[in-house]
Amino acid sequence: MPSFPEIMHRTFFRTLSLLSPAAQGVLLRRYFDWWHRSPDPWKLATDSYEQQKYLATLQHLPPRPYRRIIEVGCAEGVFTHALAAAFPDAEITGVDVSERALARARERVRGNARVRFVRADIVTHRPAERFDLVFCSETLYYLGRAERLRRASARLGDLLAPGGVLVAVHPWPEAARLHHYLDASLPRLAKEVYTATYRPFAISIYGTPQAEA
Predict the structure, then answer these.
(1) What is the pLDDT of residue 150?
(2) Dihedrals φ, ψ of 69, to 5°?
(3) What share of the chain is helix, strand, coil (3-state, %, to 5)?
(4) Residue 82 CA neighbour count, 13 Å, CB half
(5) CB neighbours of 164 closer than 8 A, spacing ≥ 6?
(6) Is the pLDDT of residue 17 over 80?
(7) Domains in the chain, start-ordered, CATH in brackets?
(8) Measured between alpha carbons, how far is 175 from 52 in angstroms, rounded to an integer?
(9) How far is CA 8 from CA 4, 113, 154, 162, 176, in A?
(10) What is the pLDDT averaged over residues 197-213?
């Protein structure tokens, strides 16, 4: 069961989602810029739980060629850096609302021309290209209400190229609610729930059909 501070945290973001998507995006950007006033506020680069989650996420990927990868909600690029190491031939895009976080992400992968970062939010971002692999981790609960989650889930699906794979990772059991919106529009290939940790999480894998020859 979520703690009282976590419940209040989620309530705050549901309240923000009463605003228009543009206004919500502005406030989220300011909120996360404030959080990133100090480097790595969630200890993503050093916490053993986060490292376990990253490793488990990569292990669940279907064995396919991934030429174009996007990470939605990349923060300071810790997992983006891991993706660049795991897929050295892929072009990788990291997306986040915080420019402060992205500045550190760019420093983390400095010199790697295959990795780029874009400041945008999931609800309004419409890139021209499509991706073979899409990651969305610890992000959807910031969007609040059902209508905003449906819109974000549709945007995630729109990012996928034919035969593409979407990976969603969120705390359990909240992931059951968050991933429900993805279940409504994308075929789910696999799901794994990790409970042997102080903060249980679920990994859901989705895929789109291959293009016809």
Answers:
(1) 93
(2) -130, 140
(3) 40, 25, 35
(4) 18
(5) 130, 131, 132, 133, 134, 207, 208
(6) no
(7) 4-207 (3.40.50.150)
(8) 18
(9) 6, 41, 27, 39, 19
(10) 86
Q: Hunting for tokens 């850096």 — which residue is that?
A: 81
pLDDT tens by residue, 29-39: 999 999 999 99
Tell me the C-alpha distance between 172 and 42, whole Å. 18
Cα radius of gyration rounded to whole Å, the chain: 16
Per-residue pLDDT of 72-87, as tens digits, reads 999 999 999 999 999 9
pLDDT tens, residue by residue, 105-164: 999 999 999 999 999 988 777 888 999 999 999 999 988 888 889 999 999 999 999 999
H helix runs in the chain, sequence order: 4-16, 21-35, 48-59, 78-86, 99-108, 146-158, 174-183
Q: Which H or E element spans position 115? A: strand 115-119
CB 25 within 8 A of CB 19: no
Residue 183 in this model has a pLDDT that exceeds 80? yes
Name, in order, each residue with C-beta under 8 angstroms of 35's C-beta and a sequence gap of 6 or more: 41, 98
